[in-house]
Amino acid sequence: MAKAKELKAYARFKSPGDRVFDTFNIIMMLLLVIVTLYPFINTLAVSLNQANDSLKGGIYLWPREWTLENYKYVLKESSIYQATFISAMRTIIGTVLSVLCCSMVAYTISRPEYVLRKFVSLAFILTMYFNGGLIPNFLLTRELGLIGTFSVYILPGLIGVFNVIVIRSFIEGLPEGILESARIDGAGEFTTFLRVVLPLCLPVIATVSLFTAVAQWNSWFDVFLYNSSYPELSTLQYELMKILQNSGASMNSQDYSSMFSTSNVANQVTPTSIRATMTIVASVPIIMVYPFLQKYFVQGMTIGGVKG
């Protein structure tokens, strides 16, 4: 109540310049919200609109002819459900292990008593600019025996250099006295990391977890490279990509002019409608998770990004 009175008093004594600035900010934020939300709402509308009707254009925020045929077409594939399970497992396991490993590396190179921390940090940063390339990575993965295994989704991405830098910057901002107190109480480095540092890093951990989870969930190229011959290890994104290719091939083999004259026009799908439907299907899990991490995400980006 007192806070609201203070805000009203502050608004009453604003100068004309402050009011103009606030109005400009509000308008810009509204425009940003519209620009951000419109593509998703438009995609949702196309996915819920009758496919052949969507080819005429003019679908903006609301479907013109409602239908669920696009979703039935995508979800009728039995492989979708096994692929969704694999995607969920690689997202959960990959995110947990990657965040844990990145946090341990970040804690190590953040300690001033570690004499090789500058060299190790430089070696990590160089990998952000230079890598062996696609063919050497494939050959290395094959020699390690990871092809045709679930671990090929987890092991190559355990350490993300950008994530290590973000977490290290956050740890370096923690009060040194807290760590010294833990050592005085007899805690070793691993105990200090698990019981002191990790709980304090919850905001940046949530941020990095969101980055990693989105990357794992959306990944399909590694499936194409390493596990395309193993259907039991296929992921949702890869299956949706194959559905899009198949629908595009089948639609290209048809005559669009005769399509509109058939009696089954309501049951047709098009690459455009399938693409929109796939986007919604693949986005829903991440959209459901993000609101729970939003608070920590903002804190992690602002605090963890202060130091370089």
From TrEMBL:
<dbReference type="Pfam" id="PF00528">
    <property type="entry name" value="BPD_transp_1"/>
</dbReference>
<feature type="domain" description="ABC transmembrane type-1">
    <location>
        <begin position="84"/>
        <end position="293"/>
    </location>
</feature>
<feature type="transmembrane region" description="Helical">
    <location>
        <begin position="20"/>
        <end position="41"/>
    </location>
</feature>
<feature type="transmembrane region" description="Helical">
    <location>
        <begin position="146"/>
        <end position="171"/>
    </location>
</feature>
<feature type="transmembrane region" description="Helical">
    <location>
        <begin position="80"/>
        <end position="107"/>
    </location>
</feature>
<feature type="transmembrane region" description="Helical">
    <location>
        <begin position="274"/>
        <end position="293"/>
    </location>
</feature>
<dbReference type="GO" id="GO:0055085">
    <property type="term" value="P:transmembrane transport"/>
</dbReference>
<keyword id="KW-0472">Membrane</keyword>
<keyword id="KW-0813">Transport</keyword>
<feature type="transmembrane region" description="Helical">
    <location>
        <begin position="192"/>
        <end position="217"/>
    </location>
</feature>
<comment type="similarity">
    <text>Belongs to the binding-protein-dependent transport system permease family.</text>
</comment>
<dbReference type="InterPro" id="IPR000515">
    <property type="entry name" value="MetI-like"/>
</dbReference>
<dbReference type="GO" id="GO:0005886">
    <property type="term" value="C:plasma membrane"/>
</dbReference>
<keyword id="KW-0812">Transmembrane</keyword>
<keyword id="KW-1133">Transmembrane helix</keyword>
<dbReference type="InterPro" id="IPR035906">
    <property type="entry name" value="MetI-like_sf"/>
</dbReference>
<keyword id="KW-1003">Cell membrane</keyword>
<protein>
    <submittedName>
        <fullName>Sugar ABC transporter permease</fullName>
    </submittedName>
</protein>
<feature type="transmembrane region" description="Helical">
    <location>
        <begin position="119"/>
        <end position="140"/>
    </location>
</feature>
